[in-house]
# Entry
Amino acid sequence: SQKIEQNSEALNIQEGKTATLTCNYTNYSPAYLQWYRQDPGRGPVFLLLIRENEKEKRKERLKVTFDTTLKQSLFHITASQPADSATYLCALHATPGRRALTFGSGTRLQVQP
Amino acid sequence: NAGVMQNPRHLVRRRGQEARLRCSPMKGHSHVYWYRQLPEEGLKFMVYLQKENIIDESGMPKERFSAEFPKEGPSILRIQQVVRGDSAAYFCASSPGTDSNQPQHFGDGTRLSIL
# Structure
């Protein structure tokens, strides 16, 4: 089944800078990859989905890239704000055809004012 | 609020008791998923259900845990004879089911504490 690695170290950046988070996966290349945001005491909230034939996807200040050769996705938040502080989770389907999601352990982002 | 509703938000049980966690999916969603999140760990898939059917229970412990999603009413995750190691946050998610690549919408979880 799929394994996902996200940087477990917290990422601290200054307000206004671009935050870049990394998601690496092993085994099969998924048809698509998802990013979620999780705040303390809350459930994950879906942010973006990117398909294998899409190199890049944008939504407002968010940008996701998907490199199936490197088996990596990058998640960017431009013009970061303190309200962006949260844990960001990368998720893939556990095996092809299954709906169960495998989540990375998440990267905690802290945006300093 | 038409989101995924879970209750209770917090549940305290003593070792050996039963825990029942409820999940009402988003309106129009017929697929429900349960995940467990242990402290400082990622979300781990437990079970996937459609109305009246368990589709995938590969992540659920073989003993003491069961799940159902009846024709009427919420989905229930049941843990019998709870032990300390069951302490975790249990999240429910739902999707419309029309397409396997639909994102899953999560509730805010039930935090289970075992004394």
About this structure: Chain A has a mean pLDDT of 92.
